[in-house]
Specification:
By secondary structure, the protein is mostly beta strands. The chain has helices spanning 15-21, 24-30, and strands spanning 50-54, 60-63, 67-68, 76-77, 86-91, 98-103, 109-115, 125-129, 134-138. It has a single domain (15-138), classed as Beta Complex (Metal Binding Protein, Guanine Nucleotide Exchange Factor, Chain A), CATH 2.170.150.20. It has 2 helices and 9 strands, in the order ααβββββββββ. The strands form 2 sheets. Strands 3-4-8-7-6-5 form a 6-stranded antiparallel sheet, with no helix packed on it. A hairpin with a 7-residue loop joins strand 3 and strand 4. The radius of gyration is 14 Å and the shape is globular. The termini are far apart.
């Protein structure tokens, strides 16, 4: 797991610029670590092949080849597209210990990663990511 001390982001905007760039729900989730309601996201059940990018900065985060159906209400991936695409940090909110997933490029909140849940994936991990944090670029 990563440290609470993240390396500096590669892409930064002032808060006012983030507010202008993102919709209110995008801002609430990406910049304030919110969560979209389960089973409401655009990519929850998507099977389209392509690359999932960070909606805030456009960095490549996940590929459709690592997406799987977890039936949890949010898009799930068993591995990031690149080991440096995301950073992990401890999250002790909501009276529990979880591991938060943030975009390496802009430090936007994406969701959480869980291990040991018994999904038949190569990593035994579930990157549970909010759809509103992603933009799918379909394979041509």
């Amino acid at each position: 797991m990563g440290s609470d001390q993240l390396p500096p982001p590669r892409f930064e905007l002032a808060d006012a610029e983030w507010r202008k760039k993102l919709s209110s729900i995008e801002y609430a989730v990406l910049r304030q670590a919110g969560t979209e309601r389960p089973f409401t996201g655009e990519y929850t059940d998507t099977t389209t092949e392509g690359i999932y990018e960070c909606r805030a900065c456009g960095a490549e985060l996940f590929r459709s080849s690592e997406k799987f159906s977890s039936h949890c209400g949010w898009p799930s991936f068993f591995d990031p597209a690149d080991s440096d695409a995301v950073l992990l940090r401890e999250d002790r909110s909501l009276f529990t210990r979880r591991v938060e997933v943030v975009c390496r490029n802009c430090h936007s909140h994406l969701g959480h990663v869980f291990e040991g849940e018994g999904y038949p994936t190569p990593t035994d991990q579930r990157y549970c990511i909010n759809s509103v944090c992603l933009r799918l670029r379909p394979t041509e």
